[in-house]
Write a structure and sequence with these properties.
Elements (H helix, E strand, L loop, with lengths): L8 E2 L5 E5 L2 E6 L2 E6 L4 E6 L2 E6 L4 H22 L2 E8 L4 E5 L2 E5 L6 E3 L5 E6 L2 E6 L2 H12 L11 E4 L14
Antiparallel strand pairs: 1-6, 2-3, 3-4, 5-6, 7-12, 7-13, 8-9, 9-10, 11-12
């Protein structure tokens, strides 16, 4: 049996959970998220816990069992605490600013780059750090990856946009005489 899939999910008091018609809806103080239930997996509510159970023992079904449990746990955490990713901008002359909801990036191109986040995602700028916040873990990660893709860190000088915990392997460059 899946080690992750068999763990129960604890629902805090402020979180409401509704399972109906193959869709689970979780709402809490930060918002509401919905997710279709994976085929072959059933969800059972037992007081303030939710249990994921699967109908068979195939390898794909075992994987989906753990996936459904992880998605549900992320939904519960998202509506209570939220998720956050931090990006650092490094490079001489590289600047970041926020005007309204639009993120303005000056990344050494001949033009400034503007990024408008999707609905449900909040951006904040702290000097050279971009903070991406939201209740949906997948969406927060995708927005952070989209922003990083505007100028990924290069291996010679390390300039670009990187995750705050990312380690960029540096190369030596040309050998001089």
């Amino acid at each position: 049996m899946s080690r992750i899939g068999r763990l129960p999910i604890l629902l805090p008091k402020e979180v409401r959970c509704d399972i109906s018609d193959g869709v689970i809806t979780v709402s809490g103080p930060k918002g509401m998220l919905t997710q279709p239930v994976v085929e072959g997996v059933t969800l059972r509510r037992d007081g303030d816990h939710i249990h994921c159970e699967r109908s068979g023992d195939g390898s794909r079904l075992r994987a989906r069992h753990g996936l459904m449990r992880a998605l549900l746990a992320n939904m519960v955490r998202g509506v209570t605490q939220g998720f956050e990713k931090r990006l650092e901008v490094q490079g001489l002359g590289y600047r970041v600013s926020l005007s309204g909801a639009t993120l303005n990036l000056s990344l050494g191109f001949s033009h400034p780059v503007a990024y408008l986040p999707p609905q449900g995602i909040e951006l904040a700028v702290e000097r050279t750090t971009i903070v991406v916040r939201g209740i949906d873990k997948q969406r927060v990660g995708q927005v952070a990856a989209d922003i990083r893709a505007k100028r990924p860190p290069e291996p010679y000088k390390g300039k670009g946009i990187r995750y705050s915990d990312e380690v960029v392997r540096r190369k030596a460059g040309k050998a001089g005489k």
